[in-house]
Amino acid sequence: MRDRTLFVLILAGVVLLVILNLPEPVSGRLKGFVRDAVAPLQLLVVDISRQGQETIKLARGVSQLMSENQRQAGEIARLRLRLNELDKLEDETLKLRHLLEFRNRTPRRLIACDVLGRDASGWWQTLRLDKGANDSVHADMAVTTPEGLMGRVISATARTCDVLLISDPKCKISAMVSRSQAFGIVTGNGVTTQGQPVCRMEFINVDRRHPVQNGDEVVTSGLGGVFPKDLQIGRLENVKVNDSGLYAEAEVVIAADLGALDYVFVVAGLSPGAPSATAAGPAAEAGAP
Question: Are residues 223 and 129 located together in one domain of the fold?
Answer without folding.
Answer: yes
